[in-house]
Design goal:
single chain, alpha/beta, Rossmann fold, 17-stranded mixed sheet, two-stranded antiparallel ribbon, elongated
Length: 591
């Protein structure tokens, strides 16, 4: 009771005044703000740039309570908005307003947090902001009951330097950033989640500056300031493939969170640079990325932060028929008696052409399932829904049933790889007479089929079999590939689920992937809790980026193998097919 009274007194003593966006409260008692420096201010740049701005009136960090959601729409969670600006200023004014608009409409209480800038003298460049951040979380938590949200459902939304600060708040709450100044500092400062955009300064080759070596070298590590303590929160990280503040920062944070089994998501985007958030964010080619909100709220829905996580729905029930298909045609993969490495215990492979009723693109998608290389089905949940989804979009789909069970006296994937290379050549040879483009072919597989997809995408210059006819003079390279929870991709899980979840230093990409000069862009989608580890996809994405093969990746919090078979509406596992279409659209494959 005494603590509650002291907390109430501390909060009541805070200066309250009207700000640019809402009701402001200073978070430090007068004269008690640590490391006061006369050169610092706490103000968004749209305010500090106005004529007549007086620095001496804006020295103390503050929170700004933004208009709460409608009473009937409140979900009981609070989102703390944190601007970037290199720790030199708080400049993301437009982002703060846009985040507030979107998340308030979704039922979140939004709070704009404004920390001291520019960087402090004679201290770590983030130190005063970190002090302000821990104090702000305590201040906000102390007002949870009064403001109508759950103190254990406070999270952050951030950009760049703000994401560096948010990562500190999410991973290092048990490390005090400052010495106690009053009773409020007895309140915990951990957060329940963090949504970060383009974390800056996280790697040891980019402390305070863009990464000198793209965050990728044997001696480049995560900064040791991130403690990953017992209060580490789930994180949803967004990063662009061309960001000079390297996306390897986010992949390294994700790897650490996987080691701790903290549910998290990683969303990496081809061609996007540092300006990440916003409906007007664009890649190098000018293509807009405006689906981040669906992914961010899908992460929060999966964690049930909005208290709206519903029952899971079977994927096959959502795509029950082939109403968008005009015709289906079956073709053998190999001429009679010409199947390489023929083995009697395996079935004959075949293709099926699924032509849409309304053709809207000349691109072709080849799809096949997983099955541990012991079996595979072109009609199950790993193939049929995607086939129907793409037919509805006006795309031609070719399904493949490759040979199984595993061949004797050969690597597990060899005969399936032969079938895939031959199938790509067949599709390329057939494309023109079907009114399609022979140079717009993609492949897509799940689990073992994801491993097969990596083979097809990275190793097309290596012949899986000796030529049997003129068709084999055609190239078997593809223009894009879709890897859905690929298995067997790392050396700690070549035959069984990954023994270290792919997070150990010695877990490497399997040696069969050549990553040759014809390696194509890929999109990966993986459940982060998958025993055939999400790090399979992450490490493949990292290797593609080293080659400047710009690709997408999406991991899904708390989801295991076959994440899509059943999923709750509003989650990433429910909307995963949209990620594939967006990737194709960005790359121009589906035009």
């Amino acid at each position: 009771m005494k603590l509650k009274m002291l907390l109430a007194a501390a909060v009541a003593a805070a200066a309250v005044f009207a700000g640019e966006r809402g009701e402001r409260e200073l978070i430090w008692p007068e004269g008690k703000m640590p490391h006061f420096q006369a050169g610092q201010v706490a103000a968004m740049t749209d305010e500090s740039a106005k004529p007549g701005f007086k620095k001496e009136e804006h020295r103390t960090a503050y929170v700004e309570w933004l208009t709460p959601p409608a009473e009937t729409n409140r979900n009981g969670a609070c989102l703390v908005l944190i601007s970037g600006g290199g720790y030199w200023c708080c400049c993301d004014c437009g982002l703060i307003d846009m985040w507030n608009k979107k998340f308030t409409a979704a039922g979140y209480q939004c709070v704009n947090f404004v920390y001291r800038t520019p960087r402090p003298a004679d201290l770590a460049f983030y130190q005063s902001a970190w002090e302000d951040g821990q104090r702000a979380i305590r201040f906000i938590r102390a007002q949870a009951a009064k403001r109508g949200f759950d103190p254990e459902r406070i999270g952050t939304m951030s950009m760049s330097a703000g994401s560096h600060l948010a990562t500190l708040l999410a991973t290092s709450a048990l490390t005090p950033a400052y010495e106690k100044v009053d009773a409020l500092d007895d309140v915990p400062c951990h957060v329940a989640f963090a949504i970060t955009g383009a974390i800056a300064y996280g790697m040891t080759d980019g402390l305070g500056d863009p990464n000198m070596r793209q965050g990728d070298a044997p001696d480049v590590k995560l900064d040791s300031i991130f403690k990953f303590d017992a209060k580490t929160a789930p994180m949803c990280m967004f990063h662009g493939g061309r960001d000079p503040y390297s996306p390897f920062t986010s992949t390294h944070v994700f790897r650490k969170l996987r080691q701790m089994k903290v549910p998290s998501e990683l969303h990496l985007f081809a061609d996007r640079a540092h300006p990440f958030w916003g409906d007007d964010a664009k890649g190098e080619d000018g293509t807009a990325y405006d689906h981040w909100f669906e992914q961010a709220t899908g992460f929060l829905r999966q964690l049930n932060m909005d208290h709206k996580l519903g029952a899971e729905v079977a994927l096959m029930s959502r795509f029950p028929n082939d109403d968008a298909r005009a015709s289906v045609e079956k073709l053998a993969v190999w001429p009679k008696d010409k199947t390489p490495n023929f083995q009697k215990h395996q079935f004959e492979p075949y293709l099926e052409w699924h032509t849409p009723k309304t053709l809207k693109t000349k691109a072709i998608q080849i799809i096949y399932s997983g099955g541990c290389y012991t079996g595979n089905s072109p009609d199950g949940f790993e193939v049929a829904p995607a086939r129907r989804f793409l037919n509805e979009k006006g795309m031609t789909v070719v399904t493949l049933k490759y040979r199984a069970s595993r061949p004797f006296n050969l690597a597990k994937h060899v005969t399936a790889w032969q079938d895939l290379q031959r199938s790509i050549r067949i599709v390329r040879a057939e494309a023109k007479k079907r009114g399609l483009d022979p140079d717009r072919i993609g492949i897509m597989g799940s689990s073992a089929g994801g491993h097969l997809t990596l083979m097809g995408a990275t190793s097309s210059r290596h012949a899986a079999y000796n030529a049997i006819d003129a068709l084999d003079q055609l190239p078997c390279k593809v223009q894009w590939a879709v890897g859905i929870y690929p298995a067997y991709a790392l050396t700690d899980g070549l035959e069984v689920p990954n023994t270290t979840s792919g997070t150990a230093d010695d877990a490497r990409l399997a040696p069969e992937f050549s990553f040759d000069p014809d390696t194509c862009p890929m999109v990966f989608i993986h459940g982060e809790a998958d025993g055939w580890a999400a790090m399979n996809s992450v490490k493949a994405w990292e290797q593609l980026r080293r080659m400047d093969v710009q690709s997408d990746l999406h991991t899904l919090a708390g989801r295991n193998h076959c994440f899509q078979a059943k999923a709750a509406p509003g989650t990433g596992s429910y909307d995963w097919l949209n990620r594939i279409w967006e990737f194709m659209n960005h790359k121009g494959f589906n035009k």
